[in-house]
Amino acid sequence: MAKTELHAADRHDLIRVHGARENNLKDVSIEIPKRRLTVFTGVSGSGKSSLVFDTIAAESQRLINETYSSFVQGFMPTLARPEVDVLDGLTTAIIVDQQRMGSDPRSTVGTATDANAMLRILFSRLAKPHVGPPGAYSFNTASVSASGGLRVDKGAGKTRTEKVTFSRTGGMCTRCEGRGAVSDIDLTQLYDDSKSLAEGAFTIPGWKSDSQWTVQVYAQSGFVDPDKPIAQYTKKELQAFLYGAPVKVKVNGVNLTYEGLIPKIQKSFLSKDKESMQPHIRAFVERAVTFTTCPECDGTRLSEAVRASKYKRKSIADVCAMEIRDLAEWVRGIKEPSVAPLIEALQQNLDSFVEIGLGYLSLDRPSGTLSGGEAQRVKMIRHLGSSLTDVTYVFDEPTIGLHPHDIRRMNDLLLRLRDKGNTVLVVEHKPQTIAIADHVVDLGPGAGSEGGTVCFEGTVDGLRAGSTVTGRHLDDRAAVKDTVRKADGALEIRGATEHNLRKVDVDVPLGVLCVVTGVAGSGKSSLIHGSVPASANVVSVDQTPIRGSRRSNPATYTGLLEPIRKAFAKANGVKPALFSANSEGACPTCNGAGVIYTDLAMMAGVSTPCEECEGRRFQASVLEYRFGGRDISEVLRMSVAQAEEFFASGEARIPAAHKILERLADVGLGYLTLGQPLTTLSGGERQRVKLATHMADKGGVYILDEPTTGLHLADVEQLLALLDRLVDSGKSVIVIEHHPAVMAHADWIIDLGPGAGHDGGKVIFEGTPADLVAQGATLTGEALADYVGGR
């Protein structure tokens, strides 16, 4: 039989990358097989995301965007071509990343997917009494009505006025405006009512009675007596003081606007992003503002008319509050031929939630409360039933937030996408997911400037037999401790009912390393973040991403630059502001950015190094000032390890800076450059920068939420050593974690479950890791026994 020649179209079975130089990549050239599952691994900061997201996926998206007209491209994000010589064999890339879903209070799991929209159509067709079209069942749509005259031009200078009326029925609760909660301001945090304004009654940060203009407006407004204690104000004075409408008043001969204290506080503090505030302002807002469930809609966000409109004895608020797996069963029971196609689509959507392990969520859950892992899996839902093939799916650590028991299910989903004829690219550290790869690319050997090269390319067995850092650590197994520390106290949690917790009573031991674990959705974060009392002197390092523009860097974020600027200023007899690229010392040509950015409308903008400062960001005159033989730009180009040595002794000794650098080195970031923009840091690096910053906080109890996120197997050892140092220094460390190595290293484990959602919310084990392994009665116990046994 004659050998069949391969068709020309079937020869394109590789994605070829040649000469990739994005971020820290050093002329990387690889070939990735199509229609296979390829895992990219390597230490945090080795260049995985730069290769997969910033090169392959970014170029695929850019090429797709270019197929649209220039008019449409004007509304799309502009993407620059990555720094790479050749990219060949690309297919359409669908990126499923770890980015948290928007924290907009109006966004829920239902609105972020198609489920809520389909339920609104369903209720508008079947519910009784009928309220209106689908928009009438939306808590984001307000009811409005208007009428008036519309002037119509009839030509030849003639006009006619026609009466026009407009009305729209919406489902928004008018009291909370669709948010489900109303804010209440604690007046005792705003002022001391036993004092008068002249005596400095205000306790708001920055409001001083003698010189602050805002305070003078109240004192000289004429609405209140500045010498009378606030507690003695009449009802009329108090109303004007707290809720007075904006009005012009004259203060010291200057026209200013007076308005009540409550609306003033709402505009000045509550309308701003809390994360961007200075720490003392953020602490004030957290003290002064309390959020309570809206008494009118009972947190459902919907108007009374919508809550009264029901189908099969349930309103849309009732079904959105159900766990999705229960809702899927309820929808399965609807046998209405008139909405059959809608029911089929809704059923498929809800079943995808259950299949992906999110059946414990409810559609009314605010999307901002989802963890990074949950958000990523919600984004996966729309792709599970897709008929598309020959697509490149790109995942960023899809196992984040997953218990070892849940990782198997995620692995099955990745393999299913591959078996449909898709190319699946996964950035991952977990051995369980690396093990299912058809092809592995290991980057390194180190992080930052020490990484950016391909150390290994091939099969999992080849990686295991190789000498790379990942290969050596792939089969690492930690043993449970022979002896554990004894607690010197306990945090008592009594009757915890947050989310799915069932009146949980538990004593969290202090003075030890305590790990809280359980399957995803079992109630771990609800127990610790929602139930630990604020009075417990707690420092919480959660998963919220650190914010920062390309002007922010590790030196500015950690506060390291402050003592360095002061030392430079003192040594040279000038102002500290000169040594900030965001202040007086900035290069006037590029305004301290180091680059000149040229906007090219719908095409990607171009960044070119500033010719004036050659990318150093400072004025030439500032660079003449030296400290320890270095100018400020040379200091910012140092790595953390180099700077730690530089500021440790001699004429360049700065103890305050050295302490911060020690903390950065302790969390494994010795390779980072002090002036490296935060936007170039990987997810794992950002979380460790955040951890290093919080290590300076004066707290007795540290709560860490999945600190192994983004950490390579080799880096976990360093994290465990850091946790030990924290405990040995007298701190209490509570870690919410799934990683078996962290569990094995714990002094005490609290396991929640047995399942997720209404199947969880109970403490099913308390004790040492050795006891948990010996009993093996829970899913966590089985996984830990399997891990330490090396099976």
From TrEMBL:
<dbReference type="InterPro" id="IPR003439">
    <property type="entry name" value="ABC_transporter-like_ATP-bd"/>
</dbReference>
<keyword id="KW-0228">DNA excision</keyword>
<dbReference type="Pfam" id="PF17755">
    <property type="entry name" value="UvrA_DNA-bind"/>
</dbReference>
<keyword id="KW-0677">Repeat</keyword>
<keyword id="KW-0862">Zinc</keyword>
<dbReference type="InterPro" id="IPR041552">
    <property type="entry name" value="UvrA_DNA-bd"/>
</dbReference>
<keyword id="KW-0479">Metal-binding</keyword>
<keyword id="KW-0234">DNA repair</keyword>
<dbReference type="InterPro" id="IPR027417">
    <property type="entry name" value="P-loop_NTPase"/>
</dbReference>
<keyword id="KW-0067">ATP-binding</keyword>
<comment type="similarity">
    <text>Belongs to the ABC transporter superfamily. UvrA family.</text>
</comment>
<keyword id="KW-0863">Zinc-finger</keyword>
<keyword id="KW-0547">Nucleotide-binding</keyword>
<keyword id="KW-0238">DNA-binding</keyword>
<keyword id="KW-0227">DNA damage</keyword>
<dbReference type="Pfam" id="PF00005">
    <property type="entry name" value="ABC_tran"/>
</dbReference>
<keyword id="KW-0963">Cytoplasm</keyword>
<feature type="domain" description="ABC transporter">
    <location>
        <begin position="484"/>
        <end position="779"/>
    </location>
</feature>
<protein>
    <recommendedName>
        <fullName>UvrABC system protein A</fullName>
    </recommendedName>
</protein>
<keyword id="KW-0267">Excision nuclease</keyword>
